[in-house]
User: Which sequence fits this backbone?
């Protein structure tokens, strides 16, 4: 009888411990997801500020006597910032569940990056610069595993290319499947469909759907 009571006591202790671990795990998971969501949201707010600033600067350049060299340097600085933020956001979004609020923030960011792309084209045309616009259009909403693997290769290859090209290129990552009318229209202008994503568009006239090395991309740029 004493042994039975002892076993029953151990059982309840184990049950309480298991419940504590379970609820602690749920609480920790919720905290971690909330933390990641807050990091993503803060990154979007920062990016929104810098991209709006870039848009305003491009408008100033269009009607003022500010030199082309200043416009070029500002454009390159924003391009580098955009890609660095893209890598950070991609890491956090990969680990975090895509909620409706995160998707909405991403749409706002895509709109601003699309504006930056248009501004970059305008500055290049106005000033006659020879740098390359490299737009990386990718599948954002639940891509298949094979698409994820392909985009991993694209992203790493573009990162290496940017390191080698430096100020000779402007790299703009942009989700192509976020149901944004202006982005869809830009894609249609260059004959890019969502089914083809990911796609790399170079200087608005070279469309690349398969790439495995930096050398392959450099053939289209140099």
Assistant:
């Amino acid at each position: 009888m004493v042994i039975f009571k002892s076993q029953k006591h151990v059982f309840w202790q184990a049950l309480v411990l298991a419940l504590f671990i379970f609820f602690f795990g749920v609480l920790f998971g919720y905290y971690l997801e909330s933390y990641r969501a807050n990091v993503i949201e803060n990154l979007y707010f920062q990016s929104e500020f810098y991209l709006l600033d870039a848009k305003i600067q491009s408008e100033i350049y269009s009607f003022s006597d500010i030199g082309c060299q200043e416009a070029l340097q500002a454009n390159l600085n924003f391009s580098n910032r955009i890609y660095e933020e893209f890598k950070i956001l991609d890491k956090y979004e990969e680990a975090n569940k895509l909620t409706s609020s995160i998707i909405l923030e991403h749409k706002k960011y895509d709109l601003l990056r699309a504006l930056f792309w248009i501004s970059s084209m305008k500055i290049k045309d106005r000033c006659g610069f020879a740098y390359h616009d490299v737009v990386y259009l990718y599948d954002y909403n639940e891509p298949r595993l094979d698409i994820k693997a392909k985009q991993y290769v694209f992203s790493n290859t573009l990162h290496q290319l940017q390191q080698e090209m430096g100020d000779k290129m402007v790299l703009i990552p942009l989700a192509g499947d976020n149901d944004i009318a202006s982005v869809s229209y830009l894609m249609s202008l260059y004959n890019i469909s969502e089914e083809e994503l990911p796609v790399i568009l170079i200087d608005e006239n070279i469309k690349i759907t398969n790439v495995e090395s930096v050398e392959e991309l450099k053939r289209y740029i140099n």
Observations:
- Residues 87 and 155 are 9 Å apart (CA to CA).
- Residues 2-63 form the longest helix (62 residues).
- The radius of gyration is 24 Å.
- The chain has a mean pLDDT of 76.
